[in-house]
Amino acid sequence: MNRRIAIGIASLGAIASLAIFTSLFDPFAAAKSFLIITGALGLMGYALIDIAQNRAKMFAGKRRVFFILVLAFLAVFLVRTITTSDSNGAFYGVVGRSSGFITYFAYGLIFILSMLYFNFDNFRFALRGLLIAGSIGSIYSLLEKLGKNPWKMGKVYEGTGSLFGNPNFSGAFLSLAVVLSLWIMTNKTFKKEKWLAGVTLPLAIYGVYTSKALQGAISIVIGVSVLALIKLFQMKKQFGIAGVVPAMFVGVIGILGSLNIGPLSTYLYKGSVAERGDMWRTATSMIKENPIWGVGIESYGTYFRQYRDLKQSLRAGPDVFSDNAHNVVLHLMATGGVFLGLLYFAIVVGVAIVGIKALLASSNEKKSLLGVALALWLPIQAQNTISVDNPAVFVWSWILGGVIIAISLQEKTEGISKVEKKNSKQLKSTGSTTHALAPVLTLLFLLLSFSFTIKPLIAQHSFRFAFYLGTDAKQPDTLKNKEAALIKAENEDPGNVTWPRYSANSLFIDQAWPETVSAAQRALDKDPNDWISWWFMASAYEKAGEFTKAIPARLKTIELDPLNTAVLLELAKDQKAVGDLAGLAATKAKVLSINPNAPEIPALNSL
């Protein structure tokens, strides 16, 4: 069974990383998380009886510690999901992110299965799966650069996004392919994969380059540095120790450079670093005010405008916001509380400690396997400090984390050890046979996963069609048909506030003001703190000339976004329209108190 589970996890990681469903409103994250959830539950169903029968042996020692940590993490996550006001969003995640409880539950299952079923021999399947996925992703990136990619997406970013939807995600994933290909090319035992690694290496390097994602280049440096240090330790311990000092020095200089300090700042500092700082400070404010439970799972975007500081508003502009802290630990703490973030952090630190300790004490063969696992896993952790938990990359963090624990705790490789029969049996008996009911449980778990995941996918498909339906002012039926299609799509996933909000967006573009107000109200019935829906409602009333009705909605947008001078300008216009001169004067004073140099001041003075 070890081999089958290992192949299943490797296949799941590879396929999920590359998956896109072009018929969905979100063709990237939704597709990947769907496969991750379905695959993880199916594999757990297949392994469940074996785990139950061998639980005492499987969860002995340090494995038990990690098992308890993962269970505790998921338990806290579930409790906070249930108690979040937007429980649907907490369960499934924000549309476009798919980082809700159900996806993290799948990550936890993948980690446990990887920890229990991977070993020296079958780790090859995980590496092969990642290499194949990296190769395909690299080829698609090249096709995209040449304009030959089969699935044309709207050009939002400057760099290539490959099959990942975002240049940063593409650069991050393809950087893993670079590190892995380089290791295979220099490793004597992976002969069958050398040709593919040789093809993938230059393509992946070019893919990282065309993505224009700095984090991809940094990940390559981290991964290659780990491989180089391990090679030095294998040659001679003193060489390895000597290599650690300059590596740490370069690392510190690099970190300072990314913060616009020191000689590397010209190359490493980007405006996005300042943006990350804004997001981190906002997350910190959320944590300070809500340390135990956070603001609610996947509610960072809902509360971002309330918790951001004046520095962010002045630097980036009042209309710039984010739905993610772009740091996994901070995001979990801000949305789920300090305990949730600390439990995740404990899992990560635990994997690092166990892996590095085993690496330093292991033989050359084990050192090589652990080394490549760490060289792939550590760059992902670095990415997790500055980016979001994108499924294509993040799933490999959990796979490799489990692998590191599995290999670290396995004493000897089959090829070099002279084990007694008893120990050999222990090594192979972990699920060596498949229970007759395993396929039945697999099917049941797959059906269970479908019961959770199919309806949101249907809604995504329906909404993609409805959102882009055209209307014609000369043919009123076209607007009625579109509104009906939007409502039907909303009802496919009735708990999701995103869909009526997007309906308001689409209808606003069509200049259908009453219909926009109705859609915004449907969203607000689900989440009264949805700033975007209040904005659409206020703006639709204003466009329709109903300024008296617009003012309450506009005041709500200000309550939920107190530093937004652009919104205050719109309120001032409404107050002028209804003759509220006292309110207008108060609004002008409010803008001046926020930013005496606000770009809205000339327009305010003209009212």
Number of domains: 2
List low-confidence stretches: 413-431
Distance between the termini: 75 Å
Which outline best applies? globular
Keywords: Membrane, Transmembrane, Transmembrane helix
InterPro entries: O-antigen_ligase-rel_domated (IPR007016), TPR-like_helical_dom_sf (IPR011990), TPR_rpt (IPR019734), WaaL-like (IPR051533)
Subcellular location: Membrane
Membrane topology: Multi-pass membrane protein
Describe the protein's architecture and organization.
Pfam families: Wzy_C. It is a multi-pass membrane protein. It is found in: Membrane. Keywords: Membrane, Transmembrane, Transmembrane helix. By secondary structure, the chain is mainly α. The chain is 74% helix and 0% strand. The chain has two domains: 438 residues, no CATH class; 148 residues, Tetratricopeptide repeat domain (Serine Threonine Protein Phosphatase 5, Tetratricopeptide repeat, Alpha Horseshoe). The longest helix is centred in the C-terminal third of the chain and has 30 residues.
Task: Describe the protein's topology.
Layout: H1 2-18, H2 29-53, H3 55-58, H4 62-83, H5 87-92, H6 101-117, H7 123-146, H8 167-185, H9 194-211, H10 214-235, H11 237-258, H12 265-268, H13 271-289, H14 300-307, H15 310-316, H16 328-336, H17 338-361, H18 364-384, H19 391-409, H20 421-429, H21 438-467, H22 476-492, H23 498-509, H24 513-526, H25 531-543, H26 547-560, H27 565-578, H28 581-594, H29 601-605
Helix pairs in contact: 1-2, 1-6, 1-7, 1-19, 2-6, 2-21, 4-6, 4-17, 6-19, 7-8, 7-9, 8-9, 8-10, 8-18, 10-11, 10-18, 13-14, 13-16, 16-17, 17-18, 17-19, 18-19, 21-22, 22-23, 23-24, 23-25, 24-25, 25-26, 26-27, 27-28
